[in-house]
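Subject: for your reference before the review

Hello V.,

The reviewers asked for a structural picture of the protein, and I figured it would be easier to keep everything in one thread rather than splitting it across files. Below is the amino acid sequence we used in the manuscript, unchanged from the supplementary table.
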Amino acid sequence: MANFTKSHVPRFSAEVYQNPYLPEGGREVHAIVTVTATGGGTTGGRPVSAGSADGPDAGVVIMVDCSGSMDYPPAKMRGAREATAAALDTVRDGVGFAVVAGTHRATEIYPGGGRLAVAGATTRAEAREALRKLSAGGGTAIGTWLRLTERLLSSAGAGIRHAILLTDGRNEHESPQELRAALDACFGSFTCDARGVGTDWEVKEVTGIASALLGTADIVADPAGLTADFTRMTEKAMGKEVADVVLRLWTPLGAETVFVKQVAPTVEDLTSRRSESGPRSADYPTGSWGNESRDYHLCLRVPAAAVGQEMLAGRVSLIISAPDGPAFATPPRPLSQGLVRAVWTDDAAASTSINPQVAHYTGQAELAQAIQQGLDARKSGDTAGATAKLGRAVQLAGASGNEATAKLLAKVVDVVDAATGTVRLKAKVAEADEMTLETRSTKTIRVKK
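And here is what came back from the structure prediction:
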């Protein structure tokens, strides 16, 4: 469990955007909560592990796929070695780190002995030398890589625990149930960014790993791009200041939570990750934070009421929780909180108005879903379904100003009229382009306030 003092925690703020007005008998309340963390910096304000004040304040483990396919072409393994070395150069002095080689089993490449090394000039040089030993051969069982990583990070007692996973193929040497069990066992222990190199891996597998462990997923189609990507990921991990932050949602008697979703910078449905934290109160995990801002979409169902009545529909708080369980038994002081209201009115204009933030992110969530459904339809040979869904995605991307997604869509469909969503499926699509669109489909743009 991590100890925190006031100086260890960045300042959090929570702003609520909603239209609180409901018609008589109306029950569903929508709100966007913008959470911003500021003031942590990179030289202080980091959590220190309880009982190990002299230990590392953070730990990073890099899992490198070393299955046989990493030698086809050899540039993949070469790129993985170079990228891992670059990432280790980015690790801050004093941070714990390790490198794991992943095949049908997990092997400690550096430092060994079931522990993390402490980053410094000597250990980085030793690690770079150890990376020369990485060679391709064997199968792929990602669950074993994750379980070893969990043991390594837990042994160090670090406050911030992060992992990077690189794979080039499918998880063929263990069952989906074994991988799911490993993800469940690792949840809450560390966050994990997952990357697929080349085009022979399964998008839903890699994005599922990142989603389960509150990290990011992306494709690196060309191994030459690995070094820059690994460096960016590690720099971002080094900027994290506080781990195990949960979004705590309290609702009054008679009210219920329909869903809780992160909607920026990516769409991530947190509804099923609810853990009870008190009477009419539940926690939703958000992972580690540095200087950053994220948006969450809440949908609450309240008891119907008459015109003129008003109620507090929900209270959102940011809380630091124990990394190995629910939030602390003694309720901590919220880092920040916001209120969601419900007011019943007979003013039709007021009750039918949609808050701009809610409208924007509802569209972004629909955009992500339309892309996924369209690509699934395309793969199954449903041309009409794929055209309809991807056309709708083009329409939503254009209307919201999501230019990055619009450009990715244009590599899969010929856009006839973006405003109406009129498209034609391209006869030939590069596999890397289709996988990039699928992998990045959940990336959103912020609403212009």
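For the response letter, the relevant points are probably these. The radius of gyration is 23 Å. The longest helix spans residues 356-379.

Happy to draft the paragraph if you're swamped.

O.
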